[in-house]
Structure formats: C-alpha cells, structure tokens
Design goal:
With 437 residues, the chain is α/β, with parallel strands linked by helices. Helix content is 32%, strand content 24%. The longest helix has 24 residues.
Length: 437
C-alpha cells in the first residue's frame, strides 16, 4: 500500500519557502549534516526534525537504547518551521488551551509544560547551546473590544489557576514597551525567550549517537512493507518497524487524516539592530508580547537589540514577500511611529498545522504508524510534550492521555468549501480584531 500518492497526490510532503529564515540568517554558517542515501534499516523513522520530532526521537532512544532511530529533515536544520518560530517558550498552558472551568485538566497541562521547559533548559545548559535563552516573562495586550474580551478570559484562567500575573493599564504598558497603542494588558513571568534557529540546531546536535539525523532528506512516500514500513527519500530508502509523522500539516501527504488538518502560512520580520535612540523608543529589553486576539501581532526584542514582528495569515499558500513586508511595516509603524523609516532586514514566511477546534491530530493511525500534527501555533514547549508522549505510546509505556488533555482534532469540510470557510472566518475575525492587527 502506498499512502502518499494514493491518498493525497496533490499535497507536498514538506514545505518550500519564498524567503530565507531570518533567525537562521543571524547565525554563523554551518555545513549541513549528511543526507540519507542508499538502503538501510531502523527501528523507528521520525519524519521532521522539529521540536516534536526531536523530543520523540530523544525520548524513544532513552527508553529503548538498543533500537536505531533515524530522523528525516527535509531542509537544513534551522531553515524550516522550527527556526521560523517566534521563540516564545511558555511554562504554562497556552491561551488557546486554557480554560478556567477545567482546573484539574489545566493543572496537568501546566505541570507538563513546566516539566518540558525544565528538560529543555537542562539540555541547553548541559550542552552549552548558545541560543540566548532568557526567562523574560511575556506580555499580552489588547487595544479593541475583541482583544480586551480575550484578555479578560485569559486573566480569569490565570487567576483561577493560581498563577502569577499582573494587570497593566495603558500607561504601565507604555512604560514597559515604549508604545501607548494598547489599552490594557497583563504580564506573566512564566515564559522564556529564545533564538529558535539556534535552539533547534543545538537540540539536534545534542541528540544521542544512536539517533541519526539526515538533513535535506524529505520523506517522499511511505509504503507498507511486510509488518513494517518503507520510507523513500530522494536518494534512498529506509525499512523500519515504526514511523512517526512529526512534519505537521505535511503529514497529510504521508497518511495523516487530511480531513482534520490544514496548512496555514504566517509571516515575520526582523529589523536591523536598533540604534541607541531607536532602542529608547521600545523601552527596556528583552521583552516579548503575544496578542490577546488570535489574529493580532506578536512582538519581541532580541539579544542584539532588534525588533521582531509576526502577523498575517494565509491558507495553504505563501504570500508575495513584498506584500507581506508592506503589511508588517504598517503594523509596526502603528505601534511605533518613531520607527516608521527603520525598515526590515529580514522578512520571511513559515507554516503551521491548523485544526478546526485547536486540538492536535495525535496518536496511532495505522500499525506502527504514529502522528503528532496540528500544533495550531503551539510552539516549542507544547510540541516537546506531544513528542515525548508519542514516543511512550509507540513503545507501549505509560503516557499522558493526550486526547483527554488537548481534545481530538475535529472534521473539516473538503476543498473548496474549507478554503471558503477559512476566508469567511478570517474576514469576520479581522473585523472583530482589526485594532489588534
């Protein structure tokens, strides 16, 4: 049985990008690791060297050290979605997962997030990964009524869960962020900021020797092979007992349920390092701000005194970079008029897997075939939680009940209805959250 060509002949197994990753461009040049060539065997093949895939490979090898694990990365490590992340590492449940009415479940999510963050920090410390990891906390802020309602809901969750936070009015936000654009906000200390391309490069380099990571080696197809699987790459094949699809929306082309998963493009930009005068305009550093409304702007500063902005969303296709740059410039200028002429040094797009109800597509989907996709922008820590749990499931070890904690991805209508629905919802949300974009 050939899954990829039969089930999804028009779907790509890996992303392509119109612009280079801005975070990767800031790092020293690095020769890519080896590519997969020839025929070989493994006990497990993980498709995707992102935070989920790397966590899964590491946990699997730790629990079954005698088994060979291969990770396939379609691009150079750091070039793909993990390096295009905004670099927020939350120690508590994400706003999209938060619910003040399910405190027992939320307590478990918070515990898992803190444990995963502690493990990631330990890896950074142990392997001296130079990724600018800083526990800066995070701001959330809103300007209009829709954003302020979402902010109130998140504050309700933080209060009910007994988590530390501080409400901030316009003046307090302006003092901390250098902009009076937002009407109100809150600050939570439970977040780290990181250089994401440096982090994923370091985490891959820190994998144990029994885990082989091949770069520039996309999985092109997946075939049943006796009681196992045969994974085909551009220059070879791997026969394996088990496969984990950790390539997010692109898992659809390799057998994941495409009725529950779609790809969304979002965009980010980095300024050049700010001058002392420009730095004064954005107040203290470092800091990071997440939008209260889901279509709002993410903002953060960097260790080398740049300003990053992320915003804008597209369905299944990346927008023209010049159009993206103009939209991001307008959003940045609205918040920081004094920086109207600063421009961007780097502008790029990246993908995330989206499900209709925000729950991941996770678990065993065939004999020896597993998936963790539909992160819904969940980021580094949540991806690590899901990856480790998937490894335990594949080995028959006790694991957290991920569907009970995060829910199950719900069905979405097929194209073109899905696209039309997405565009309709986006237009409604853009009107509701127009002050946050």
């Amino acid at each position: 049985m050939t899954l990829a060509p039969h089930l999804a002949p028009h779907l790509a197994t890996h992303p392509t990008h119109r612009s280079a990753c801005g975070w990767q461009a800031l790092l020293p040049a690095r020769a890519p690791g080896p590519s997969q060539r020839g025929d070989e065997r493994a006990e497990l093949v993980v498709v995707g060297a992102g935070y989920t895939g790397v966590a899964a490979a590491r946990a699997y090898q730790a629990l079954a050290p005698e088994r060979r694990v291969v990770v396939l990365e379609a691009e150079r490590v750091g070039d793909g979605s993990p390096g295009r992340n905004s670099g927020f590492m939350l120690e508590i449940a994400l706003a999209n997962d938060a619910s003040s009415g399910a405190l027992s479940r939320m307590a478990t999510l918070n515990r898992l997030s803190r444990e995963a963050m502690a493990s990631l920090k330990a890896l950074v410390d142990t392997h001296a990964i130079d990724c600018q990891l800083t526990r800066s906390g995070t701001y959330r802020a809103a300007r209009g009524s829709a954003g302020r309602a979402a902010l109130a809901s998140y504050a309700e969750f933080l209060h009910a869960a007994g988590l530390d936070y501080r409400r901030l009015d316009r003046a307090a936000l302006a003092e901390r962020l250098g902009t009076d654009y937002y009407a109100e906000g809150l600050y939570s200390p439970d977040c780290y900021l990181v250089q994401p391309a440096a982090l994923i490069r370091g985490l891959v380099a820190a994998l144990p020797p029994a885990v082989t990571c091949y770069e520039q080696s996309p999985a092109l197809s997946l075939n049943r092979d006796g009681d196992g699987w045969r994974v085909t790459t551009p220059e070879g094949e791997i026969r394996t007992r088990q496969v984990m699809l950790a390539n997010n929306a692109f898992a659809r082309a390799l057998g994941a349920d495409r009725s529950r998963l779609t790809a969304i493009y979002t965009y980010a930009a980095l300024t050049a390092p700010l001058t002392p005068a420009d730095t004064a305009a954005v107040a203290g550093m470092p800091w990071g701000l997440l939008p209260a409304h889901r279509l709002g702007c993410t903002l953060r500063t960097t260790a080398d005194r740049r300003l990053m902005i992320r915003a804008q969303y597209d369905y299944e296709r990346e927008r023209d970079p010049a159009t993206v740059a103009a939209a991001l410039t307008a959003s940045l200028t609205a918040r920081y008029p004094a920086l109207a002429d600063i421009g961007f040094e780097r502008v790029w797009g990246g993908t995330t897997g989206l499900t209709y109800n925000g729950a991941p597509l996770w678990g065993e989907i065939g004999p020896g075939l597993y998936v963790s996709a539909g992160c819904n922008g969940g980021g580094i820590v949540k991806g690590s939680v899901l990856g480790e749990a998937l490894a335990r499931l594949a080995l028959g070890r006790p694991a957290e009940e991920i569907p009970a904690l995060f829910g199950r991805a719900s069905w979405m209508p097929p194209a073109p209805i899905r696209r039309l629905a997405f565009e309709a919802i986006r237009r409604v949300e853009q009107r509701r959250g127009r002050d946050e974009t």
